[in-house]
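Please go through the sequence and fold tokens given here and tell me how the chain folds. Record follows.
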Amino acid sequence: MIEVSHVSRKFGSFRAVNDVSFSIPTGQIVGLLGPNGAGKTTTMRMITGFLAPSEGQIFIDGEDITKAPVESKKKIGYMPESAPLYGEMIVEDYLKYIAQMHGEDPAEKVPALCKECGLKEVMSKNISELSRGNRQRVSLAHALMADPEILILDEPTSGLDPNQVEDVRAIIREIGKTRTVIISTHILSEVETLCSRAIIISGGKVVADSSIENLKNSIGSSTTVFVEFDGNAKNAESAAKAITGVSNVSSNKVENGHNEIVVSVNGETEIRPALVKALVESGCDVYAMAMQSNSLEDVFHALTEAK
């Protein structure tokens, strides 16, 4: 378990992290979000022991990390965004070296991590020859070498292609079944996919800490329906506004020359059947319809803009 209690970190007169508190129980995958310069990386570096808090305390399984640094760090695996790897080393030799540094048996740990992180095809290659995706896998194997209870990942899929992203996410899902995982990322869809909870930091402070679903509902329950059609835009707007549950309607042109109306709905009222019927009766030909509910991106913008 991780407990961060009223932690602040100053760099000279600048307060990068300001009175941050949260706790994460064992076996939870949590997204740590925030705009650039919000204090995410500084917070992670304090949790891992790379930086000492200027104020407050951090506990790992009840132990103050500043008073029991060696014992606490043994429980943590950290994968920074740009992990420092020895490019001239062969992957297998590098992992054996890391295993020995951690006091682990290379003959036992390296094959197990090779399988867990999908490194079989690159074990005999120099690290400098690897794609970014495979370098991320090697970094993940490094972070897992001491079988940590807590895994902290900074932008784990940054710069990867879609196939590599899904591969790394699959590994993280599997890891998260038995460990506490903190993921810092700018890819909000990744948090929605992997995490059960998100902590949002802005201006060095925690501005939200809740389940993904609760965060989406925190700015109000709303739905937007987009309809592409041919016909008179004013007639379409009038027809849509007459439907119960509609709060606002606007229209615009789309790239293919069709018209589009954007219909805002109160709560989660289902208006699509009535909307199609109303548009057709107003003389419009409907080509496409899409519905969008509140997203984590909406919450992120609402909580971090102008802060």
Remarks:
- The CA atoms of residues 248 and 264 lie 5 Å apart.
- The domain at 222-300 is CATH 3.30.70.1340 (Alpha-Beta Plaits).
- The two ends are 30 Å apart (CA to CA).
- The chain has a mean pLDDT of 90.
